[in-house]
UniProtKB/TrEMBL annotation:
Thioesterase domain segment(s): 1-209
Domain of life: Bacteria
Family per record: Belongs to the thioesterase family.
A Pfam family of this chain: Thioesterase
Native organism: Ktedonobacter robiniae
Protein name as it appears in the record: Thioesterase
Membrane-spanning intervals of the chain: none
Length: 224
């Protein structure tokens, strides 16, 4: 999904999509069930590319990973993204309003997925596809539901937080609360659609990313 964005983003943007284990070509690999090992693996994969100005975009679980990765880079490498885009996830310090679902039976878990409107109906209706994706979805839920925000030094980079107007998982106040995670500016935007607004409002989202990236002063990513 992200790979095709390069055709609509500015030419100077070198898009580097991250594919987590358990997905697409890495389908046979076990997915992560805790966030910090996933953050560490992502950091090791990306470090060779962070000698140039960089920005992060993360959606849903990816938003949480991008946030914790930004904190690690700032604390350990004296690096920070020029801008952090987070999408489809409440601010990390906000409590989870939902009852944990990762230990439910397959049938109960599938029903919970349908209720939260976070999984496409054509997936939920296809037993063969569900057989493949249930372990991955359960692992993703485990990562998110076992995550505990630890207060620490604020990020210094701008944060831009996105959500879909019909996404039940992100209330307006949970989106705005991302502002407490940085000493820099924070902006929010809600797009038409639900959790999958990345596809249904793709053009509007990429226009916003293009605008924000164009405003970044291209200097090497060093600590202030």
């Amino acid at each position: 999904m992200f790979r095709s964005w390069s055709r609509e983003l500015p030419l100077e943007v070198d898009l580097r999509p991250i594919q987590f284990p358990g997905r697409e070509r890495r389908l046979r690999e076990d997915p992560y069930t805790h966030i910090m090992p996933l953050v560490h693996a992502t950091k090791q994969a990306l470090l060779p590319y962070l000698d140039k100005p960089f920005a992060f975009f993360g959606h849903c679980l990816g938003a949480l990973v991008a946030f914790e990765l930004s904190r690690q880079l700032q604390a350990e490498q004296h690096l920070q993204p020029t801008i952090l885009f987070v999408s489809g996830h409440r601010a990390p310090q906000m409590p989870d309003r939902f009852t944990p679902a990762h230990r439910l039976s397959d049938a109960e878990f599938a029903a919970e997925l349908r209720q939260r409107n976070g999984t496409r109906e054509e997936v939920l209706q296809n037993p063969d596809v569900m057989h493949l994706v249930l372990p991955l979805l359960r692992a993703d839920f485990t990562v998110c539901e076992t995550y505990t925000y630890t207060p620490g030094e604020l990020l210094r980079c701008p944060i831009v937080a996105f959500s879909g107007a019909g996404d039940k998982a992100v209330l307006p106040e949970e989106l705005v609360s991302w502002s407490a995670m940085t000493s820099g500016p924070c902006a929010t935007q809600t797009f038409p659609g639900d959790h999958f607004f990345l596809q249904t409002a793709r053009s509007q989202l990429l226009q916003r990313l293009t605008r924000d990236l164009a405003q970044i002063k291209l200097e090497p990513p060093v600590s202030p």
